[in-house]
Amino acid sequence: MKVLVTGSSGHLGEALVRTLRHLQYDVVSVDILESPFTTHVGSITGCSFLKHCMKGVQTVFHAATLHKPHVVTHGLQDFVDTNITGTLNLLQEAVAEGVESFLFTSTTSVFGDALVPPAGAPAAWITEDVAPVPKNIYGVTKAAAEDLCQLFYRNHGLPCLILRTSRFFPEDDDNRKMREAYSGENLKANEFLFRRVDLEDAVSAHLAASQRARSIGFGRYIISATTPFLPEDLSDLRADAPRVVERRLPGYRTVYEERGWRMLPSIDRVYVNERARRELGWEPHYDFQFVVERLRAGEDPRSPLARLIGSKGYHAEAFIGTPYPVD
Q: pTM for the full model?
């Protein structure tokens, strides 16, 4: 099968190309940056470029995007050009070429302000039924691109599945207070409880979606590690997260204390992946319990794929005192 992967020099793009090649797919891959995993260097904003790349393609994995780390370094129009116009160009060329399925990598950032409940309220239980309230140009343009996918399914019959991925980047958090309070490894381990997914699981979700796209037609899915929490935990999570974690996963505290790690005092949202597991047949392997067990055994909790790809960053330049500038 011939497939197209966009953003092939990025974290997820490279991971998809590596995996698809290993599975013997015929992979065409595009990015604006050269890499061993990019067969065609160019922009998704160019229709003639995409027309050439799309020849004979049966499935599109659209991972190319401007991310949240680019909000300060790139203009609003750059986000519109890449995230909206680029997606539109791909959808049009996919229809023209008779592509069988289109997988769009979106983000849980589309939920925006819906992720943060008012003071004193329980933590938010985030499913696909929560209405997005984007809070920056990144979220706005990804939400608009999702709507374009739905439009092309409805008007042209192009099967489109949207995967709203949670955090999988290995870089340090952009929040200075969080970087000062927690080591990068400690914070990422905490996030597997409610807002992180391992890169290998993100890839397996895309592959599972590609197998189900034609039978489903259109759908939006949260791709995050399986949380141990239940809806009845939400009030306590906001007030005393360590107590809830100890209740659901007894023994984690010993592993943390051995490393001088700390649990977050409060958790304000929980991403729920139940629909993706049920409808896509997706089976994520990396969750908080897995992380704790690997740490207890003295092993790296990251997947082999995540370790292989490592950190890429988002900019050609480095910034003093922060992984990237923020508003």
A: 0.95
